[in-house]
Amino acid sequence: MILAIFEKSSQCKQVAEALNFKKNGNYYEGTFNNEDYRFVALAGHVLELIPPDTINPSLSWDSIEGLDQLPESIKKVPVSSKKNLLDNVKFAARDADMIVMAADPDRSGASIYFSAINYLKLQHKHGRTIWFSQGLYEDNVKNAFKNFKHSDYSLPYFYADHARAIADYYWMYLVRLYTWFGRKGALSENLGSGGGKSSVVSVGRVQSALVQLINIRDNLVKNYKPKRFYNFNILINGAEFKYTHDAKLNNFHLYNGYIEDRDNVYFTDQMQANNFKKELQSIGTLLINKSNKKPFKENAPDVFSSKDLWSHCSKKLGLGVKAIQAITEALYREGFVSYPRTKGTHIPKSTYSAEFIDNILKTNENFKKDLQKDVRLSISNENFIPNVFRDENSAHDGIIPTGKNISDIKFDSELIKDAKKKTKVSNDSFIDIFNEIYQQFCLACLQPAKGFKCDVVATVDTPNLTDKKTSTFKTSSKFYDDLGYLIWTKDNKDSEGTKKLFIPEEGEEIKFDRVTLKTSNTAKYKHYTETTLPEGMSTISKNIKDPELAKVLKNASGIGTEATIVSIIDTVLAREYVNLSAGIYTITDKGKDLINVIDPQLCSPNLTAAWEQRLKEIEEEKDPIKAKELSEVFIRKQRNFITRKVNEVKAEYIDKLGTFNVVQYSGNGKPSPKQVAFAKKLSKDKKIPLSPKTLNSVVLTSKFITKALDKKG
């Protein structure tokens, strides 16, 4: 008998139903592909690292003694409320010949599974990994069981997550240290103030980098002044030749008049621009150096990754990222869409068939029937395989419908009701998001757009703005013979073929009558919103100067993962480092203090980039023995790093205790009636404005009273 261990009960139940297994007490049992199975479920992480106080009983939030003594090894113990689930697994495994992983296909899923079997001393029975990347619909479940991964496949994922978990654990020592200094008034008025968790000075490597990201954007919104820049166009027979600047990011500083802004180079000298325009007009002739006409093809778009879906649905449906993810997760658990926490945007080529696509189309037959008709027409060509069906080195595929008809959705199911409770959305939002995923899949299956384009390079015989002997202009014209998928995404595409293409002969001299001097301003910065903040986290590599680390973080899609971004944002909001109002994120005074006080290295994305580089190496190591060794090296280095930082922080702040007046409280954080009355009296007597926001917080009210009493008059 083979025992399959699932990450959660809902997942276990759905897979059992897909295979027609029967419930037997706490388990499901049945036969598939001539093998007997028993299914048992956990409930997420059922084991946790023991608290620092348990390892060293002398540790206390009221003391900094022992915070420089980080343990070399840390055991995991059962979460008290979930111990019975481990007992279930142990009993279910008593007569199992093999145990297989059937958790979520990622680091976290591997960690949940291997942590459980290691704790129960069942690792010797581990034999396979069932990788549910295509969702929990019947056909996909059967396919996952038929095409299981080998026994070692998921071990590197476990070692990577274990390394991350231990390293994050070590950071708790730094958090305790900063919190103690904060509560003792050594850091600032705001850090350490508050009650309970809000008084904790969180210096998590990802949270701190996120606070800094929002802080930088706030400063840019406040202080950035748009810069005026100039460009030049020459118009001939409807074609627009644009001036080509030879100044690039790596050399613009060598030339007068050029600046850099957000990785773009601009020309800003108005006098030079006017003189250059006059010189071009006086010559009035272009020499065609290169004229290249060729056919082109534009493939249909890929299916959604998690972040693509968040961005698309935020803009189109007006939903927040948290709501979109909760809804998509519920649709996945109910079997309507594939795994929703993914970087992938493709579908494995091995799954392609007209039948596969047709089964998905049938899940939403009343939605845009003409689009469905076009998809069926596209795939009727036996020589055509949509570009989205391809093989990539990725653990996860893009998000697609699974083949379960959306008309079967039950809005009174526990999963759907729980998602609605969390997100405060209507039933329509579930259908809307499914429709967007369905439509994107349809678009991805359409024929590419095809046509012709002509790229032309020409010169004017006058020195350019970087003192070269000639000035280069370029134009490109493009027309579509076949709009393909574009007929569903863009309007007014020209499909009259090549007759409108501007195709001059090489060596031809063409006179022109007009040069335009185009004046523009660099764009203003905008505050991060619920839509743009996840995008900002994904592109934070732009803030890293080291090209190698920047590349690592870019490849890792920034800070946070599809599974953690929402919770990271929630954490900085709960810590009162960031405020969310009318859909806009701004930094608070407390957040500013955090950035100003803690070691700059701790809020730099460089640190996360270095982490991700090492963790990716562990995850992608095919040899589990080497993966384990890499994990141990990473953990040892992180222990040394945090030990050094603890000693540095101690030395910096031990003589600053009591420097600031820090307000702490218990209860709901509201000022007492006496405090409110006293604050109002001081406001009236000393003619100091008092806002309702101040009277809603015991911290702000206490600070107001202190400052008012210090004021003379």
List the helices and strands and how they pair.
Blueprint: E1 2-6, H1 9-18, E2 22-24, E3 27-32, E4 35-41, E5 47-49, H2 52-55, E6 76-78, H3 83-92, E7 98-102, H4 107-119, E8 126-129, H5 138-146, H6 155-183, H7 205-223, E9 228-236, E10 239-243, E11 258-261, E12 264-267, H8 270-283, E13 285-298, H9 306-317, H10 321-333, H11 354-361, H12 369-379, H13 414-423, H14 427-444, E14 449-460, E15 471-482, E16 509-511, E17 515-521, H15 532-538, H16 547-555, H17 565-574, E18 578-581, E19 584-587, H18 589-597, H19 605-620, H20 624-653, H21 673-686, H22 692-695, H23 698-710
Helix pairs in contact: 4-6, 6-19, 6-20, 7-17, 7-18, 10-13, 10-14, 16-19, 19-20, 21-23
Protein architecture, described:
Helices cover 41% and strands 16% of the residues. With 713 residues, the chain is an alpha+beta fold. Helix 4 links the parallel strand 7 (98-102) and strand 8. Helix 10 (321-333) runs antiparallel to helix 13 (414-423).
Question: Summarize this, please?
Answer:
This protein has 713 residues and is an alpha+beta fold.
Strand order of the largest sheet: 16-13-14-15-10-9-17
Shape: globular
Total number of helices: 23
Distance between the termini: 85 Å
| Largest sheet entry | 7 strands, antiparallel
Instruction: Tell me what portion of residues adopts beta-strand conformation.
Output: 15-25%
According to DSSP, the number of beta strands is: 19
Uncertain runs with pLDDT below 50, 5 residues or more? none
In percent, how helical is the residue content?
A: 40-55%
**Mean pLDDT reading:** 88
SS class: alpha+beta
Rg over C-alpha atoms, rounded to the nearest angstrom: 31 Å
EC number: 5.6.2.1
Pfam family, one: Topoisom_bac
Protein name: DNA topoisomerase
Family: Belongs to the type IA topoisomerase family.
